[in-house]
Amino acid sequence: MTLHLPQQAVEPFSGPDVNWFALSPMIILVSAALFLLVVGALTPRWPKGLYAFVAAGAAGAAGALSMALWDDVTDKGTSTLVGGALAFDTFALFVTITICIGVVLVSLTADDYLVREGLDGPEVYALFLVAATGGIVMGAANDLIVLFVGLETLSLAFYVLAASYRRKAGSSESGMKYFVLGGFSSAFFLYGIALVYGAVGSTNISTMVTTVSSTIPVERNDALVLAGVALLLVGLGFKIAAVPFHVWTPDVYQGAPTPVTAFMASVGKVAAFAALLRVFVVALPFYRDDWRPAIWALAVLSLVVGSFLAVVQTDVKRMLAYSSISHAGFVLVGVEAAAHRAGEEDSGLGVPSVLVYLLAYAVLVAGTFAVVALVARRGDGDTSLDSFRGLGAQRPLLALALTVFLVAQAGVPFTSGFIAKFGVIRAGVDEHSYALAIIAMVSSVVAAFLYLRIMVSAWMSDPPTEGQGATAVKIPLATGFAITAAVLFTLAVGIFPEWLLEAAETTTSFAR
Amino acid sequence: MIDVVWLIPALPLLGFVLILLFGRRLGDPKAGYLATAMVGASFVVAAGVYFDLLSEPAEERSHVVTLFSWLPVGDLKVDMAFLADPLSITMCLFVTGIGALIHLYAVGYMHGDPKFSKFFLYLNLFAFSMLMLVLGENLLVTFLGWEGVGTCSYFLIAFWHARASAATAGKKAFVTNRVGDFGFMLAMFLAFQAVGSISYSVVNHAAEEGSLARSTATAIAALLFLGATGKSAQLPLYFWLPDAMEGPTPVSALIHAATMVTAGVFLMVRMNPVLTQSYDWVPTTIAWIGVITALFAATVAIAQNDIKKVLAYSTVSQLGYMFLAVGSGAYVAAIFHMITHAFFKALLFLGSGSVIHGMHDQQDMRYMGMLRKLMPVTAATFIVGWLAIAGVFPLSGFWSKDEILMFSAAKSPALYVVGLVVALLTAFYMTRQVILVFFGKARWEDQAEEHGAHGDFKPHESPWIMLTPLVVLAGLAAVGGIIQLPDVSWLPESITQKLEHWLEPVIEFGEADVGGTWWSQNKTILMLLASAAAVGGIIVAWLVYEKDRIKINEPTILANAWYYDKAVSDFMGGPGRESFDGAAWFDAHVVDGAVNGVGRGVREVATGMRRSQTGYVRNYAGIIGIGVVLLLVWFVLIRGIL
Amino acid sequence: MDLVVFVVASGMVLAGALGVVVYRHPVHAALSLVLTLFGVAVHFVSLEAHFLAAVQVIVYAGAIVVLFLFVIMLLGVDTAEDLRVERLPIQRPLAAVMGAGIVGLLVAAIISTRDTAPLAMGTGLDVPGGPIAEGTTAGHDANIRQLADNLFSDNVFVFELTSVLLIVAVAGTVILTRRERRGSQDGTTS
Amino acid sequence: MHEPAAGFPILTALILVPVFGALATAVASKRRPEIVKLIGLLASVFTGALSIWMLVQFKTDEAGFQFVSRHTWIEEWGISWHVGVDGISLLLVVLTGVLFPLAILGTDAHHDDKPYLAWLLLLEAGVMGSFLSLDLFLFFIFFEIVLVPMYFLIGGWGYDNRRYAALKFFLFTMFGSAFMLVAIVSTAFLARDHGVGRVTFDLVELAEHASFPATTGRWLFFGFAIAFAVKVPIFPLHTWLPDAHTQAPTAGSVILAGVMLKLGTYGLLRFGLYLFPEAARWSRPLFLTLAVIGITYGAIVATMQKDLKRLVAYSSIAHLGFIVLGIFAVTNQAITGSVLQMVNHGLSTGALFLLVGWIYERRHTRDIAQLNGIQSVAPMFAAGFMVVMLSSIGVPGLNGFVGEYLILIGSFLSARWWVVVAAAGVILAALYLLWAYQRVFHGEPDEDNKSFPEITFREGAVLLAFIAMIVFSGVYPKPLIDRVEPSVDLLLAHVEARTGEPVATPDVVADGERDHEEEGG
Amino acid sequence: MIAEITPTPTWYLILAAFVFGIGAVGVLVRRNPLVIFMCIELMLNAVNLSFVALSVRIGDIGGQTAVFFVLVVAAAEVVVGLGIIVSILRRRPGATADDLAELKG
Q1: Helix, strand or coil for residue B584?
Q2: pLDDT, tens digit, for every residue of C63-93?
Q3: A49 three-class SS
Q4: pLDDT tens, residue by residue, A237-277
Q5: Is D340:D422 a contact under the CB 8 Å cutoff?
Q6: Which of A237, B68, B203, C10, by CA, is between 20 and 30 Å from C156?
């Protein structure tokens, strides 16, 4: 890749070893993205569904490879890749799989939407795949700079995707807002990296951990590194949409094209939380007593503000945006639990609970937005609560699927949402975070109100007699398939969660 | 025969079931005969049991017949069991006996009513309940009957439910009775806690041997008396009984004169050891409440114009007498008066029913008069009843009333004086009634024209089926006194105090011993005094109403029963209802308001927070910036530098 | 000397930065930005980061600011902005609090830890003419050489990842600028 | 006490049969509503038959859990499918089994039979599961899942204000269970360190081995208690109930009153008293007071209701107050009475709701002011109503009395003054029901009520079934008591052993000095 | 005297903090999206300066490598950001950040 001129070198340059197989999921995604961009640009329009199929196929393959890699890790133990840039552990693989599932679901639902709205093209899918790669890197990063670049990859793709429906004013606006605020918060994040780097001496997480843990703890002034930690939390708080860094979420979720919203809510959130765990639980366990209260506060604020504000919305996408904030609060309960034991051998129940929650939520939210995209009909305009009226009468199965997603988000038993919530609460309680657990549960009651509102609209209101809502929505094949898969997953995890929990349990040992 | 004592209540129950299933097919009058036969059969069984008991030595005349275990929970062992002893069999005999007569009467009285079979359905159910009440071996079986008679009373008072006043009266009776039941229940609970059983034998035994603490016994007795005031229409809970006259007259005779209302007296007699064991203020209070009720009701009865209302207040008054007896420790006298009262009051009610029947449902005495000409049998029997209740020698009322007065005098002369006044008043208002109905001018002719209901309105005598019971009862009312003649020198000892000897095993612990007092030694003087009062009352009334020698205005306050009922109604309809409305308002606005308020609060807080989401990206950056500053304050200032 | 350079360059940086914020005209702001970027480049030089100084000038001043100016001209959005008016009432106080807070707290953190040694020191920076390992002296390109070594060993993955980032940039511009394939028939359009 | 269930897992079947029934109705053809109805009815009847068969097989003299079936479900979390039945849950299970077919038979959906029956059957499965679960987690999910079918039943087939009511019901209950979930998890984890040694959600294991410090136990208990207090409902958390009952379709009200409220009282017994004996006894004054307030307050507010269904709903609050009183009195008679009262209230109030529903179907109003004189035009209907009403009032000889009486007499041993107030509530029960009856059934019917149809054959059959049960358990409750009491005894022995404080019994041996000691009550 | 004082990395860090703060304030007070964007670039530059200063302070080249990547990221960000701005401003010429406030609540 580069020439090395050895004339003055003291030692011959040698690049790091590369375990290509371990990198294969990312390579597949990027290759598929390039394939779509290059071949897609050079060939005439492909038949409907083919772009999506390629993207979904690539993501599916990447996910399958990650599963194949799983045993590698569990058999041989964790390691780092490419000169310590990436961590190769089950945590990273779990995140990868989750992201891939999200990409598959969103790609399948996006196809019909994009064709309907006249936005079809290879670039969108390429961006999905590239963003997913960025997300995977965030989850696997073993270096803050790597994490930052992964985050930027993801974010830039999101900015573009959000603004991609140019005929819709809201789309441009949301892209603009997302971009400005994203850049703003990225700057903070980067500043945080710089300060931590300056205090600890490296951006590499392994090195950081070794450095700090080998230092004899003396009374010292940690203000600089703590300032860095604060700013890191700003950047990641923005990404996970924790209050008060959530401000972009409702506007962007509402304005962005619905599949993009689904993508942001599923893949984006997973990657952001994975990064949060990497940075805080893995890299900064020594400051856990400093940042845990901050996480606690963010969790409470997110839970309360998210669920409260969701209640007064009339637009379903906006509602779901606020609900995603509330969900973020829930996940933060798990993060808070993980914080209690960050860096310890027995890292407790927090990390697995977060991962299970993320997987469950990613599928749920992808499914929910898939239904929303269908109900919004042509022009993606009708995402108000009223547009759901009469859905139960016209499309009972679709309404039933929506119901499953919503009750799952509300945390009703026999759905993955319940298992997820239970896991997080369980983790919190195990660390004696009773107050947080109770606040979380009570705010989930408030949040349940909004899911019920949507269900009321779908089931208990008469369909409008005229206008758009009068015609029943069409359910295309791919979307239908994705929704069905999401429903089955939601119920399967709800009833037989054991395999998932077992898998999540193994993610507690991180590569450092 | 004693083993089948359960047949006594079971037969009316069978009647109830049969009428329930086939009542409509049997119809009028077969359903009535069936019901009568069942009660009659009960009477036969009761008589059989009576003779069985008689054949046994006095101290062994108490048998428990257990049917099945009813509510066995831990220490609480309640059996569905019957106690056949002199007291319960006495009660059974007169309940079934008078009951059968009234049933028979009702066949005639209810003839033609569209709900004929239903009436007997209820009547049989009532007979069953009443017999359960008296036969119960424990407080709970009695309570079953106690509530059962209350329920049947409710059904029967509200029998003509299309009439608003009847429906209201029924409800009033039930609810007022429930107030009393509250006391009954608590007494039961207390007994259970104290002695671990609610069986009469256990509780009474504990009281007799003193293992039941006096304080507990006091509480039990007082609470039972509260129950009795409800059921037996004593102050302060008497007011349902006059209203209960909305029911068909046989009901008034059976339930609201002869049987059910005496249940309170029965209960007190049944539990007499506990009453005796309690502190003295309880019996004293009972006696005073009894005599005051008697006086109160007697004054009210003077001014009533409704033929049945007079009898109703009279009943209240006579029940007061019985409680006077209970309070004075004269349990035998109480039972004695209960029986004689059952005879003559049932007779009077049935007679009044016959009058009403003949008057085509006219109940106002101001539109009667001179009916003895048209209804000779009714008039004759009614006059017997009148004399009996007035206490004229040698009719049954004379003996029983006299016995009570004697005991009350032994307890307190003040009680005696009041009791004597009541006797005078009783004679007065009964005489008034008899004169207004059967003597004087026939005023019903004016009324007939006024109403024009029938072309030629003419009161008529009732059919034989109604008259037969009248005649029988008249006979009983006349000679009923022989069951408990006083032990005075001028009567042979072999015929005196039959009832006392019979009841002795039951009441021997509680019965007041007045043997050595002046009063008991001078019974004849007391008899003369009582007779004088009775005759005095009759004469005054005769002068006032027949001869118009004395003009008196019947005070409105008496006609309105001292406004007691009205005060209660006004309270319930006024502040009572308002406070209930207040509670409902509280629930809808405060409790539910709080809930909805939380919802609204969430909404309002959210709406407020929503305003921070202005849509301006620069504002958003500002919010993030504030978040940054806050985090920095925490991390740098609080955790780092400080 | 160093002090003079520092003061002058810092003056450039701060003046430029303030200029970006206060100049009403976007073109002026862009030119102020250039001033800052040059100032930073000067600082880089004085901090012996020569390669970065060069890249700073070329990429930032040369490419990025030019891009800005290009867009300003392309769109003709060079209308001046009246900064005396603020439509959002709490915006200025918010900005003041935030600015003061961030600067104050960060400076506090920096100053309070100025004597605190980092937890770990690096292996040292190669400077032209300075000593490097085994007693040899670094050449004029020592900084570049060290940077390259670091870039292609420890950070090779990031380096490759930046290419993915560029894919995003490419694909993004394609999406954002391509012609609409189909006019909208319904739905909300702007 | 855990004998492995040999042979047919009847309890699992009790839960799963309705689920399969629901699935069957869901896939049945929409065009053949009668087939759908038949499937639904058959599924519920079959479940009912199973429950009765279980009742027959139940070993009367055994106090522990029977028909236990246990399978590991989520091993990671220490959760198993652990179901069993003892005397406390037995009757409730049978009641559930019996009430559902009657409710289905006695009412009509009027529209969308398919989802209606499917939801009803799912509801049955959930209720069954709640009563049968012996695992905290399992209990919670069943406890929570019943909200969904009930929500849809109220919201989809209810009356005018149904959405508000459904929402209120759902959120209120969920609010309560929010605390319970935290409490359940905390219990499992804290128990690990307090005697159990591992994380498990197994009720029996927790109850037998865990011994929490007093304060901890009390906090945990309150977590559970809030959920149950909402469900019961205990004053002042009751206001969801009148709305939910009033707006629910008839079958929904029947089930809601009949069995779902019992989830709360059952929970207080099983997961309150059994799991946290110390805390439960410690908090007695609070719950006794609230129970007594519920009794009187519910009755008073019921008196002033203008809507017949709402009146019955408030009467439920009063009746449930008795049950709570009995539970927290912690005596043999009181708790046995509470268990019986749960069943009895289910029968009598269930039947009352059915009758009110029938009135509504005939007259399309529940407004008491618009109903009058019905007894004159429909005497059989009125008679049925009367019997059920008397049972609700608590007239001896009918079932309502048995439970109420046992509760009061048992509670008197340990909570005398509360019983005094509660017994006063008995007066009020007569007041509001008789007054309502008078206004609706007595008097002359006006034009609108002249044509009030008499009870139909189908309604009569359903009502007769209710009345038969009402009379039987009022006259001869011994078979029921025999099955309930051993388990209650066992529970009380557990409570005594745990708290070291004897359960109140009567002072059988009386002596002269006793009256001072017993004042404590 | 004064000339002998050598600026330490701390000086640079403080300078960077000020520039960062100015940039952040700029984002809040400017309405032109392009200028807002420039302010973000200011913030990134401040971070770059910090990185280099810290790199010097701890004697580690990693900080400078990081700056290199930040430059790349900034470039990519500018491309994407300007793309978005262009696509908006072509439709709504002269729009400021405040004009884009349809989505709110």
Answers
A1: helix
A2: 888 888 888 888 876 677 777 788 888 888 8
A3: coil
A4: 999 999 899 999 999 999 999 999 999 999 999 999 999 99
A5: no
A6: A237
The mean-pLDDT minimum among A326-335, D130-139, D480-489, D502-511 falls in: D502-511
What is the pTM assigned to this prediction? 0.91
Q: Are C84 and B616 in contact (CB under 8 A)?
A: no
Do the Cβ atoms of A232 and A196 come closer than 8 Å? yes
- Pairing status of strand D79-85 against strand D66-74: antiparallel
**Cβ(D345)–Cβ(D257) under 8 Å?**
yes
Are the CB atoms for B190 and B147 separated by under 8 Å?
A: no
B575 CB contacts (<8 Å, ≥6 apart)? none
The rounded Cα B238 to chain-centroid distance in angstroms is: 9
| Chain C residues in contact with A130 (beta carbon < 8 A) | 164, 167-168, 171
pLDDT at A464 over 80: no
Q: Kindly state the average pLDDT of the residues D313-328.
A: 93
As given in the structure block, the two tokens for residue B465 are 């089926």
Longest dimension (CA), chain A: 82
Please count the CA atoms within 13 angstroms of the CA of A324 that sit on its side-chain side. Answer: 39
Q: What is the mean pLDDT of residues A368-396?
A: 81
| pLDDT exceeds cutoff 50 at D513 | no
* Touching E: A residues 15-34, CB under 8 Å: none
Residue A246, chain E, CB below 8 Å: the answer is no
Determine the Cα–Cα distance for residues A193 and A204; give it in Å rounded to an integer: 11
N residues, chain D: 521
Write the single-letter amino acid at D167. Answer: L
Compute the distance between CA of residue A413 and CA of residue C18 in angstroms, rounded to an integer: 57
d(CA D438, CA D431): 10
Contact D76 A498 (CB under 8 A): yes
Question: Which residue is closest to B633 within chain C, CA to CA?
Answer: C105
**Contact yes or no for B406/B369 (Cβ under 8 A):** no
Q: What is d(CA C51, CA D27) in angstroms, rounded to the nearest whole number? A: 72
Euclidean distance between CA atoms A328 and A405, whole angstroms: 17
* Cβ–Cβ gap A198/E57 under 8 Å: yes
Which other chains touch chain C, taking contact as 3+ CB pairs less than 8 Å apart? A, B, E
Instruction: Write the DSSP symbol of residue E7.
Output: P
DSSP for D203-263, written as a single string: HHHHHHH----HHHHHHHHHHHHHHHHHHTTPTTS-THHHHHHHHS-HHHHHHIIIIIHHH
Q: Is the dihedral of CA C115, C118, C124, C125 positive or negative?
A: negative
pLDDT of D510? 38
Residue range A113-124, pLDDT digits in tens: 888 888 888 888
Structure-token match 């002359």, residue found: D444
Q: What are phi and psi of A10, to 5 degrees?
A: -80, -35
Confidence of residue B629 (pLDDT cuts 50, 70, 90): very high
Containing H/E element for B79? strand B76-84
Q: Report the Cα C94 to chain-centroid distance in Å.
A: 24
Q: Is the pLDDT of residue D342 over 50?
A: yes
User: Residue B306, exposed/middle/buried by CB under 10 A (0-12, 13-18, 19+)?
Assistant: middle
CA separation, residue B297 to residues B289, B329, B352, B402, D521 (Å): 12, 22, 19, 19, 40
Q: Quote the pLDDT of residue D509.
A: 45
Q: Which residues pair with A115 in a beta bridge?
A: none
Using the Cβ of E99 and the Cβ atoms of chain A, whether some distance falls under 8 Å is answered with no
Residues composing chain A: 512
Q: B67 and B80 in contact (C-beta within 8 Å)?
A: yes
Residue bearing the bigger pLDDT, D150 or A512: D150
Q: Are the CB atoms for B401 and B337 separated by under 8 Å?
A: yes
